[in-house]
Amino acid sequence: MIKQIFGKLPRKPSKSSHSHNDSNGGGGVHGNSSLNSSLGPNSLNNSKSGSASSKSSSSSRSNNGPHNSHSSGWNKLYHGMKTTPLVTQAGHALTSGAYEALPSFRDVPNSEKQGLFLRKLGLCYVVFDFSDPSKNLREKEIKRQTLLELVDYVSSVSTKFNEVAMQEVTRMVAANLFRTFPSPNHDNKILEAYDAEDEEPAMDPAWPHLQIVYELLLRFVVSPETDSKLAKRYIDHPFVLKLLDLFDSDDQREREYLKTILHRIYGKFMVHRPYIRKAINNIFYRFIFETEKHNGIAELLEILGSIINGFALPLKEEHKLFLVRALIPLHKPKCVSMYHQQLSYCITQFVEKDFKLADTVIRGLLKYWPVTNSSKEVMFLGELEEVLEATQTAEFQRCMVPLFRQIGRCLNSLHLQVAERALFLWNNDHIRNLITQNRTVILPIIFPALERNTRHHWNPAVQSLTLNVRKIFLDADQALFDECLARFQEHESKEKETQEKRELIWKRLEDVAASKSVGNEVQ
Basic residues compositional bias: what residue ranges (predicted)? Predict the structure, then answer.
């Protein structure tokens, strides 16, 4: 009988299956619509028609009707869990082909609601094929309505969930959500340049059911009737790890739900917060150094932004290592534009928490500074401004020499936006004050770039901005400015003299070669 039930569960590679242990704890995700406004049954109903007709994504399921393959992976994942008689009866009903709706919670007395809850969970173990909209229409609708009833029950229940209910909720969620995504591009280390905005968003055709399962899991996690001390046995390390795997989904709606749920788990199950951070680290490492392809980096960074915001001071060494080994190297991949806003927020949070990290962050940015990608360079300059705004004088002085060598190169960039963005740094009062205080070191470094811009830059706007910056230095210290100007002119004259000598040598060589050629012709 138990084998019949496991036969209904989705196939999953046994390699990634583990046994349950414990879960996690911490905070709130900014700007998360599914977190701030729970999707009630009405909005879940409204999502059915649009999602069912959407195109099949790489994460769509390939099963035909209810799953009929036995998964040893799920046996390993949930080994030691006892199957309740009610769920066994539901599995028997599915095996016999009788997929019928169960009574509503309103139609049974309170004493029977707990049993009905388990039976409805058992009914939802079956996963249907959404690649063909014409298949199993009646059964799909029965399951959808059952899931909506379960969401409503979890939201309104007034008694604590017992261990059997927790076990069955997590097993039903696992049966519906946990799957492996096809990855045709993940083994290609060289990611071709692409713009995600030009691509049509991928929509999982199974979303009419997936959305409600996610909503059920979210409400179960946040419910005051879910005791974290008991629930951590089922929402454990393997469960969280499989949730993290789902962040690679092509469907942004799914990633938004995952972002909210994972953050709620982090907040409620404090004992496994280090595990979640470590697991996210591992995703970043693989993305940076192996694949350079992952769909959920922005969402994971958004969660981390909120987590970093809650770090206690002084910062632990573990957190500083995370900054150096994971966050800063995330500037390296070609597709950094996909998640740069969230990454920049995390980096800035670290500097605001501990201003002594500013030198480390700035040198990290310089290490990964783009050479030929102008749009990426504009992003780096924007992030640099945010970091400098939180930088104190001592940290600024440690890195200002290599920093302004790079800024000087940006000032002379032929790309209009790069040159403009570099010149806009002087519009920030805090940065301008830092530069003015250390002008004796900075001005000699960037003065040649300023002079070349005023004389030769092709864009009038850049020339005008450069003159403004030039005037700031002139007003601050005319003696230093005159000294730099004299040094620049001297260097220019030496350069001109060297160039003339070089041209003279080449002319002599040409004359010698020509005379030898004429002599050979005469002979």
Answer: 9-18
